[in-house]
Amino acid sequence: MSGQSDCPRVAFGRPSPRALLFLRGLPLWLLLLSGCATVEGSLKPEHFQFVNQVSKSGKGAGGWRVACVHVGIRKSATRELFLCKFGVEVPVENGRQGYIPVERAQGAAAKCANLAAQNILRLTTKETPMGIACEVFKTEYDLILNQTIAGSHVTRRCDALARPVLVIPR
Question: Residues of the chain whose pLDDT is less than 70?
Answer without folding.
Answer: 1-41
